[in-house]
Design a protein that fits this description.
heterodimer, A: about 230 residues, alpha/beta, six-stranded mixed β-sheet, four-stranded antiparallel β-sheet, 10 strands, B: about 300 residues, alpha+beta, Alpha-Beta Plaits, 2 domains, 10 helices, elongated
């Protein structure tokens, strides 16, 4: 008997064609276990970002089945989508913090969205800012932070609701090597806490050195899926 | 509850954060509602004046000679019982002769003296019938003619028809202008709000991606729209209220010879309609403008 827990992310024969006719995903099937850390690599236009958008429910697949945390995304209604997204944390290449909010307010916003009380919001936000090393800069505005600090704030925002899965789309794309390694260290810490982490990246150095699972896409197809793999062009 | 409080706070806060956009939107609402108010005031006062003029158009009813006073009184009650009748005034033969002397003979005392104590209009007692709605005059004349004891009925069909047509014309023109102004304001507000929302579309997208419901995202924009609508309605209402009395005083002072025709609706009565109308329209266009503009950005 198989005692394995069902995969937290499961794609089965997924095809995604944009209205323009561009094929973004082609017959993709993969399973990611709970608590796994995986890189998604591939050249521009390979379908990496579409895969993340599909998991976020931003785009719908043309055919196939996508299941995340036990939910079939193709069966999900528009009203259910926000509640599903609360199980995910998301980090973007361009950080996407709200400029007019302080670091603390940016992080607390994610808690406010899910209806957490004021006191718990404050406690949880401070705890996660402490985790990413930004507690001292809680009153700073995003424009007053370095790129690395902004990305750490974005990770804090993604983590404050304790999501089961963290999706990071090119999290080091706008950072220098030193900051990139800091961010990857932070994502590794998040992974160590039990969160499933999925990182889309172009950074071959990081992928090669971290020795994690690597899923390689090319023209929308999964061409390689290797545990402790290296960067595949 | 937390979502509502957040929406209220953020909505008011963003008005101050986006000062230029907010001022543009409030300015647009103010200008449109000011024009709307001016047209409404003109419309209602014209109607009021026309209605007053209408009430001077009377049907005159003469009786058969030697008709008993009891029957004349009975005819008066029958006419008064009719729905379009506002009032019925009895003019005796003596009063009719006095009026004739004043209006037709004027200061020609010599001519008046030739009549001595004779009253040539002794048998011309009549009722003057005033209507609420002059368009019903022909109908009423027909009815009164059918009453027994009535010798002659004088209506003024042309005057009544002119008033009715003029009234309808004012109604159509005013409603068309007000409808046009409303459409223009909705379009302008929607564009102004859309510009403001366009600047914040990234913020909306981020909120949606971190799990915010449509209501959570929409509420601050709706609060913002309603608040701007209320401010944009309050300003023209204040200006119109201050101007109304002064304009009336000005008109009365400069057109004193038209005082009989220039009758105005009391300010209190006018604003009983204008306040809810402007506030309602202000809130409505604020809500509609923000709801339509934010909707397309919620598809994340």
């Amino acid at each position: 008997m198989d005692n394995r827990e069902p995969a937290i992310i499961r794609l089965e024969k997924v095809n995604m064609i944009y209205p323009s006719g561009t094929v973004a995903l082609r017959n993709c099937s993969l399973e990611i276990e709970k608590g796994e850390f995986a890189f998604i690599v591939g050249s521009s236009g390979s379908g990496k970002s579409t895969l993340i958008k599909t998991l976020l429910g931003e785009v719908s697949t043309t055919s196939g089945c996508v299941e995340v945390a036990g939910r079939n995304l193709s069966e999900m209604t528009r009203k259910q989508l926000p509640y599903y997204r609360r199980k995910l944390g998301v980090v973007f290449q361009e950080f996407r913090l709200l400029d007019e909010l302080t670091v603390f307010e940016n992080v607390a916003l994610a808690q406010r969205v899910v209806g957490v009380s004021r006191e718990r919001r404050r406690r949880n936000s401070m705890a996660v800012l402490d985790l990413v090393g930004l507690a001292q800069k809680k009153k700073a505005y995003p424009r007053e932070l370095s790129g690395g600090e902004q990305q750490r704030a974005a990770i804090a925002r993604a983590m404050v609701n304790k999501p089961a899965i963290l999706l990071a789309d090119e999290p080091t794309g706008n950072l220098d090597p030193e900051n990139s390694w800091e961010i990857m260290g932070l994502l590794e810490d998040v992974h160590q806490l039990g969160t499933t982490v999925l990182v889309v990246t172009h950074n071959d150095d990081i992928v090669n050195k971290m020795q994690k699972r690597v899923i390689a896409l090319h023209k929308g197809q999964i061409i390689n899926d290797e545990q402790q793999g290296g960067y595949v062009q | 509850m937390s979502t509502i409080w957040y929406g209220l706070k953020q909505g008011v806060k963003s008005i101050f954060q986006n000062k230029i956009f907010s001022l543009a939107a409030i300015g647009t609402i103010t200008a449109c509602l000011f024009l709307l108010g001016v047209f409404y005031v003109l419309f209602s006062n014209f109607q009021h004046m026309v209605h007053n003029a209408e009430s001077t158009v009377a049907i005159v009813v003469f009786f058969e000679e030697s008709l008993s006073q009891d029957r004349i009184d009975e005819i008066g009650r029958q006419i008064q019982a009719c729905h379009p009748v506002e009032k019925v005034e009895f003019v005796s033969g003596g009063e009719a002769w006095e009026r004739f002397k004043q209006e037709m003979l004027g200061s020609d005392q010599e001519l008046i003296d030739t009549f001595g104590s004779d009253n040539p209009l002794a048998a011309s007692a009549s009722y003057e019938v005033y209507l609420n709605d002059v368009s019903k005059q022909a109908e009423m004349v027909e009815y009164i003619r059918g009453l027994s004891g009535v010798r002659k009925v004088n209506g003024s069909a042309n005057t009544a028809d002119s008033f009715s047509s003029f009234n309808m014309l004012i109604g159509y023109v005013s409603i068309s202008i007000i409808a046009l102004l409303l459409l223009v304001s909705i379009f302008l507000i929607s564009s102004a709000v859309a510009m403001g929302i366009n600047v914040r579309k990234d913020e909306i997208a981020i909120m949606k991606l971190i799990g915010a419901t449509d209501l959570f995202v929409r509420l601050p924009f709706l609060v913002e729209g309603v608040t701007m609508g209320l401010i944009g309605a309050g300003i023209p209402l204040g200006i119109l209220r201050l101007m109304y009395g002064q304009v009336i005083v000005f008109i009365r002072a400069h057109f004193a010879n038209l005082t009989e025709w220039l009758t105005f609706v009391e300010a209190e009565k006018e604003f009983q309609v204008l306040v809810p109308l402007c506030l309602g329209v202000g809130i409505g266009i604020g809500l509609l403008g923000s709801a339509t503009s934010v909707r397309k950005h919620l598809q994340v």
